[in-house]
Amino acid sequence: MMQAVEERICDQPVLKLLRAMLRAGVMEDGQVRRPDTGAAQGGVISPVMCNVYLHRLDRAWDDGDGVLVRFADDLVVMCWSRSQAEAALARLADLLAGLGLEPKAAKTRIVHLAEGGEGVDFLGFHHRLVRSRGLTGKPRVTFLARWPSDRAMQHARARIRDLTGRRRLGLWPELIAEDINMFLRGWAAYFKYGPFSPAAQHDPAVRADAARAVRQQQAPPQPQLRVAGAGRPVPGRVRPDQPVWNHRRAQGGKALAGQAECRR
């Protein structure tokens, strides 16, 4: 990897810094591991070093095998036929083997882009061949559409749930809303390139999580009723036929019928 860097860079301080970052290692299960080859997965320089190393693949690739589109270690080869796609996959495996790499079997497949067929996920987008509806008298055309993939949508919803989780109930609702809007602006700025509405705030899951966070912020504290002789408090009524304790008027009040007491 450092040989690939030294093909274009001769500044010794920069090379020394890169060597130190590559030798820093990673911590797994409390143990520091220093691999002899490659860059740490998820490291700050991992995408840059990946682009430098796989630049050899870009130079060796022949457009006759298909159009190669690559970003870091994610790539797509566009071909005209299945036979060309199979030849491109074999050619790709050979070139990667020369670099000491191999395609990841779980993410490597040949997809036939056809109207009504399956699509392909690449860089967070789902790409699929669709046909327009021909509204307002316009002719129907077939084009390659793109929208956020299912994995990207799941990640966005998980991020919203994290921003509105119970551990953040102590924050002001305005701060939670600001964090949500900041995430949604960045998310929409990335996924705005496509024939769909990029405003993720229209997603019902986003509105539901935001509304839940506000309700939990504004909800009054619920009293806990402790049954006489029991060690665990239970919220709400002790028995269906027992009256509800009004915690707003019972500031350190009396026990209900000598069977339960209200604790704030």
Characterize the structure shown.
The chain starts with a helix and ends with a strand. The C terminus is likely disordered. It contains 7 helices and 10 strands. A 3-stranded antiparallel beta sheet has the order 5-6-7. A 3-stranded antiparallel beta sheet has the order 9-8-10, with no helix packed on it. The protein is 36% helix and 16% strand. It is α+β, with helices and mostly antiparallel strands and 264 residues long.
List keywords for this structure.
single chain; 264 residues; alpha+beta; 3-stranded antiparallel beta sheet; 7 helices; 16% strand; disordered C terminus
Strand order of the largest sheet: 5-6-7
**Main beta sheet, described?**
3 strands, antiparallel
Q: Tally the helices.
A: 7
Give the amount of beta strand, in percent.
Answer: 15-25%
- Span between termini: 63 Å
C-alpha geometry: flat
Secondary-structure element order, as H and E?
A: HHEEHEEHEEEHHHEEE
The helix fraction, in percent, is: 25-40%
Rg over CA atoms, rounded to whole Å, is 29 Å
Uncertain runs with pLDDT below 50, 5 residues or more?
Answer: 236-240, 242-264
Average pLDDT number:
75
User: Could you tell me the number of beta strands?
Assistant: 10
Topology record:
Blueprint: H1 2-6, H2 12-22, E1 26-28, E2 31-33, H3 46-60, E3 67-71, E4 74-78, H4 82-98, E5 120-122, E6 125-131, E7 142-148, H5 150-163, H6 173-191, H7 204-218, E8 224-227, E9 234-235, E10 260-263
Antiparallel strand pairs: 1-2, 3-4, 5-6, 6-7, 8-9, 8-10
